[in-house]
Amino acid sequence: MKKRILALIMVTLFFNLTACNNSNGKTSSVYEISLSSDYDNSNEKSLSFFAMDTYMNFKAYGENAKTAVNEASALVEDLENKLSVTNPESEISKINSSANNAIKISEDTLALISTALDVNKKSGGAFDITIYPIVKLWGFTTGKYEVPNKEEILKNLEYVDSSNITLNEKEGTVTVPQNIEIDLGGIAKGYAGKKAAEKIRSMGIESALLNLGGNIQTIGSKPDGSAWGVSICNPEDSSKQLCRIEVVDKAVVTSGGYQRYFEENGKSYHHIIDPKSGYPAENGLLSVTIVDEDGMLCDALSTTLFVLGKDKALEYCEKYGIEAILMTDDKKIYVTDGLKESFSIIDQTSGYFLAE
Fold first, then answer.
1. Phi, psi torsion values for 60, nearest 5 degrees
2. Which residues contact 16 (CB under 8 A, 6 or more apart)?
3. Which of 80, 258, 303, 339 is the most buried if burial means most Cβ atoms within 10 Å?
4. How far is CA 110 from CA 12, 169, 170, 261, 291, in A?
């Protein structure tokens, strides 16, 4: 008997701490907006909408806040039309259906593929946008969840290799060979947050909180000048807040196997597939949170480090200067040096503790 659990986040931001929410595909977080009592919230504008298969909420403060969130949401929807692997009119679908032909792509798609290829190279293949044939086998894009047989996985693994992608940045084209299909789902939402933040900043907004289904992008600080508080849920019980990170002008993205999965014959199978094995990554990590100014990088690396496992993930962070929070199945929390002063454990009864 199968049981499917998909988490969708309906975001409501209050002036106090909200309840813990789950997202479809990434991040289980809570957001704190504790404004000073003398702040005039008449310049606060909030917009909730559905895009990229999840509920989003943009909240901005200032004279142009309403226009800013409206234009930012329109930008996200435009990106979805370009990047959705299931939209037959998207640039990604055109690439996937045009084997061996150079396809002209937008600057957005070019930037995403370029970053994805860079992360793929640096991680030794732990992040691979050609994983789409395997993801389809598991049903994570179609909703028809099942455990593929080993022969199917091995056959489709032959088509998982980002080195087969030819990206001509000068001409603005991309070419893939027969049977190679790309999917930017592991990086697109972070890019959307990054571009939405750029749009909002360009309109003079200095304080905003963008929740893209759990991918968090902050602009500046809260209106009262204090840091935004982003609380990460307990990966073993996502109804509970486990820890908090305070950030200013940063993105915060978490990947965890508990966020999207199905059960078959009493075993759970999550959506974060290891490109080398074709199976969900199982290496002792329960969740990975990345904090950086670049939401696109956060999105890609939260998945990448989850696949790499704790030891290689920490090595990656040290080598490339990445700030991360890793939670393991033995209840240890690893926090990189740059985040330690702004990190705190909320639930002292959870059994989780900071690793030495």
1. -135, 160
2. 32, 34
3. 303
4. 34, 7, 10, 30, 24
Counting beta carbons within 10 angstroms of the beta carbon of residue 6, is it exposed (0 to 12), middle (13 to 18) or buried (19 or more)?
A: middle
Determine the straight-line distance between the first and last CA of the chain, rounded to whole angstroms.
42
Tokens of 294: 């670049």
C-alpha 314 chain-centroid distance: 19
Specify the DSSP element, H or E, that contains 131: none
3-class SS of residue 70: helix
Which pLDDT value is given to residue 127?
98
49: left (phi over 0), alpha (psi -120 to 50) or beta: beta
Strands (DSSP E) found in the chain: 2-6, 29-32, 44-51, 54-61, 103-104, 166-168, 173-175, 207-212, 215-219, 228-234, 237-247, 251-256, 260-264, 267-270, 285-292, 323-328, 332-335, 343-345, 353-354
Residue type, 98: S
pLDDT per residue over 226-238, tens digit each? 999 999 999 998 8
Amino acid type, 230:
V
| Non-local CB neighbours of 14 within 8 Å, separated by 6+ positions | 33
